[in-house]
Design a protein that fits this description.
The complex is a heterodimer of chains A (about 110) and B (about 110).
Chain A lengths: L3 E3 L4 E4 L4 E7 L6 E7 L6 E6 L3 E5 L2 E6 L4 E6 L8 E8 L7 E2 L3 E6 L1
Parallel strand pairs in A: 2-11
Antiparallel strand pairs in A: 1-3, 3-8, 4-5, 4-9, 6-7, 7-8, 9-10, 9-11
Chain B lengths: L4 E3 L2 E4 L5 E6 L6 E7 L6 E7 L2 E4 L8 E4 L6 E5 L8 E8 L7 E2 L3 E5 L1
Parallel strand pairs in B: 2-11
Antiparallel strand pairs in B: 1-3, 3-8, 4-5, 4-9, 5-6, 7-8, 9-10, 9-11
The chains are: A mainly beta (about 110), B mainly beta (about 110).
């Protein structure tokens, strides 16, 4: 079993829709949770960083963490064509320093 | 510069050759990471530096791969006797300290022909 499972998509939605992206993980030692956005042929860009269960909001983006279910989500409200990218979930263990990434979900927002 | 800088952005080399990939982290960041990303996959950890020393090199696939950070700032990833399977995007990231967010560079796309 992979440490991190993420549906690779592709996911295609109309502009303005609410997008839900999800990851599950198996390692209960994971303590820090991140979402990265990666445009084609570019490096990943950090969107959200959290270490506690619950919701964290930043503009149109909301990260949700459920440690009891080992499940994290990223919601994008009022999606825009510029949100079209691959979204990567990532985890780390305190003190371990290395990030463990999901496969990435390729998202397309259609105008 | 404001972000992590990686050079070159693209590198094409012949099988068996030696290559060096450079990473210039955000000024003041003590932690530096190298990752490798194959097409359609998430990045995979290679090595982590805290200051000048490699604190975790457990992700290096074999002894053809080596990385240094002699002065605690710029890092170089070195690959000897390159193989076609080494073709990938090589990403560098830095963070201010332990247990904080990592910021990535734009990557070096390595193609071994």
């Amino acid at each position: 079993q992979k440490e991190v499972e993420q549906d690779p998509g592709p996911l295609s939605v109309p502009e303005g829709a609410i997008v839900s992206l999800n990851c599950t993980y198996s390692n209960s030692a994971f303590q820090y949770f991140m979402w990265y956005r990666q445009y084609s042929r570019k490096g990943p860009e950090l969107l959200m960083y959290t270490y506690s269960s619950g919701n964290k909001e930043d503009g149109r983006f909301t990260a949700q963490v459920d440690k009891s279910s080992k499940y994290i989500s990223l919601f994008i409200r009022d999606s825009q064509p510029s949100d079209s990218a691959t979204y990567l979930c990532a985890y780390t263990i305190q003190g371990a320093q290395k990030l463990v990434f999901g496969q990435g979900t390729r998202l397309t927002i259609n105008p | 510069g404001a972000g992590v800088s990686q050079t070159p952005s693209n590198k094409v080399t012949e099988k068996g050759k030696y290559v060096e990939l450079r990473c210039d982290p955000i000024s003041g960041h003590t932690a530096l990471y190298w990752y490798r990303q194959s097409l359609g996959q998430g990045p995979e950890f290679l090595i982590y530096f805290q200051g000048t020393g490699a604190a975790d090199d457990s992700g290096l696939p074999n002894d053809r791969f080596f990385a240094v950070r002699p002065e605690g700032s710029v890092s170089t990833l070195k690959i000897q006797r390159t193989e076609r399977g080494d073709s990938a995007m090589y990403l560098c990231a830095s963070s201010p300290s332990r247990d904080t967010e990592a910021f990535f560079g734009q990557g070096t796309r390595l193609t071994v022909v």
